[in-house]
Amino acid sequence: MKKLFFTILIFSSIIFSQEKSHLANDNLFSPTNIKRFADYLFCLKDYLRAANEYERILSLVQNDSIEFKIALSYLEMGNFSEASTRFNSIKKSSSFYKSAQAQSLKSVFQTGDIVQFRNQYLDINSNKAYLDSAGMASLYMFSFLLTEEPLPNEDEFIKTFPIAEKSKIKNFYDWKQDPLEKSPLKAAIFSAVIPGAGKIYANEYSDGIYAFIATLVAGYLAFDNFKAGHDFRGWIFCGLTAGFYAGNIYGSAAAVQIYNARIRFDFINELKAFLEDKNYFLQVFNFCN
Amino acid sequence: MSGYLKHILIISVLIPIKLFSQDIIQNQYSYALSLYNSEQYYDAVTEFKRLLFFDGEKEYVYDANEYIGMSYKMGGKFSDAILYFAIAEMNAGNDEELFNSKIEIVRTNILRRTISHAIALLDSLQKDKRFTDKQWDIYYWKGWAYIFNDKWDDAAREFSKIDSSKTLMIFCKNVDQEQYSVSFANIISHFIPGAGQIYSGHYFSGFLSLGWNVLWGYLTINSFVNNRIFDGLVIGNLLWLRFYNGNLQNAVKYAEENNLGITNRALDYLQSGYRGIKP
After folding, report:
1. Domain extents for chain A?
2. Is the CB of B21 less than 8 angstroms away from the CB of A37?
């Protein structure tokens, strides 16, 4: 009976102490404990501290998963160039090599340097053995939506994307092909014919109506003053009318340029939100479950 | 007998192991605290987080979170600080700790200029019967919240409730009296153009404004008197109203600028010259 009691006491105290502490041994700064702590920081999204802790382990032992996590930490922090360098430093013999190549490409993509991104993609693509092909090919093709270059053929473009995304991608493709932008020249001509019409063409209805009324009233006052023999005032209103008229023509063209810029801005924003949502068509790493 | 000896031997091995691990945690706490005390706040946060991670007994859960919060606060990362103070608050072991963590949240909100949060939290503390003996602390921090909200009169009122804060009360009253009334400057400028600027010490601008308004007002009225309605409308609308409106805007702008200068000087003094506890 006493034996049983002591045995339970001993085992329960051992189990109890193991459950309550993350200590693997008596040294908080042993590689095992540093790694556990670094993983904890990584999952807390405290990436800078996580990277620092992982670096401490690397100074003691070489480990490709740690190298990969350091690079991921930099990527999550938005330090894309450092992330890319770190991903590229992972050796070919590592099981993380393919993923690192893909993540490196993503890092370069996120720096916004599309030319370097494409060069790197083509470089990786030349060695198909190491290619995480589907995701990277989609990302490569997607990059055409972000530049002013002509788009590839529609079928060729869309076939590189996963089936679930094809309809959305087609919308983007059509939007890019026909961005529904308006012509500043047309706006200027419209306003030259009917003051304010160019503003209405640029979807600025209240400005258009205001410009029409202001030009009309100033013009009428000029006409009325000339008619009544008040030449000086007539010329003042004549100048005012000319100012309104010319300003409205210029303003209409500018309004269309702003309208077009807004369309391009919305388009880029939608593309970026979509890419974030799809994790750039690449594998999602979850080290925290 | 030999059975007993065996068990005693096992227990005597296990107890030191447990005590040893507690020593490690205690050492880690001391190390993190030394980093905090030597103002190495980034490293202090890391080491307190390490302590939290390995402290299986959760012996330091309150202190570590409190110090992490304070380190973040020192580094100007106020939102992170509030997050960790809130965790400390949840792990407070007694009313004293609970009060301290709540006050830290208030102080950080004051620094973050989310004054409404700070005041709402102080109001709830004031109503809490557990903290009836802490009313002076609450008045004190309310006073500071009002200082940062540029309400020096309210701040003086709060400090007046505390015997030991008479100096602060007098200081806040002086600042309040020194400040210009923006609405007064605006109103007198409606009746006498330029008066608002003169009130806030901008004499040249005030008299210039008065001069322009007298000139354009005279020309406008003169035009109407001589039946030159068009001239009267043009001068009145394009010149007199423009200068009259400018006079009103300047009156408000100068009074606000002066007040900002007074506030900044007062805050500067509080930061460098005041020796009491600050947010």
Report:
1. 94-178, 184-274
2. no
Residues of A in contact with B21 (CB under 8 A): 17, 21, 23, 26
Model confidence pLDDT, tens digit, residues B238-267: 789 999 999 999 999 999 999 999 999 999
Interchain CB contacts (distance < 8 Å): A and B:
53
DSSP string, A186-248: HHHHHHHHSTTHHHHHTT-HHHHHHHHHHHHHHHHHHHHHHHTT-HHHHHHHHHHHHHHHHHH
Domain C-terminal end among B57, B91, B125: B91
Cα–Cα distances (Å) from B141 to B125, B158, B249, in that order, read 11, 9, 35
Tell me how far apart the alpha carbons of residues B245 and B213 are, in angstroms, rounded to a whole number. 10
User: Cβ–Cβ of B24/A36 closer than 8 Å?
Assistant: no
Residue B7 has pLDDT above 70, yes or no: no
Measured between CA atoms, how close is A251 to chain B, in angstroms?
Answer: 23
- Smallest CA–CA distance, residue A12 to chain B, in Å, is 12
- Return the structure tokens found at A236: 């003042």
Nearest beta carbon to residue B14 from set A3, A13, A20? A13
Tokens 């105290």, located at residue:
A13
Total count of domains within chain B = 2
Residue in chain B closest to A27 (alpha carbons) equals B24
Give the separation between CA B156 and CA B263, rounded to whole angstroms.
Answer: 14
Listed as own residue / partner, the contacts of B188-191 with beta carbons closer than 8 Å and 24 or more positions apart are B188/B251, B189/B247, B189/B248, B189/B250, B189/B251, B190/B248
pTM: 0.75
3-state helix, strand, coil in chain B (%, to 5): 85, 0, 15
Domain boundary among B43, B61, B91: B91
Classify residue B117: in a domain, yes or no: no
Instruction: Report ipTM for this prediction.
Output: 0.73
Dihedral over Cα of B226, B228, B229, B232: its sign: negative
Neighbours of B271 (CB within 10 A): 9
- Domain span at residue B228? 182-269
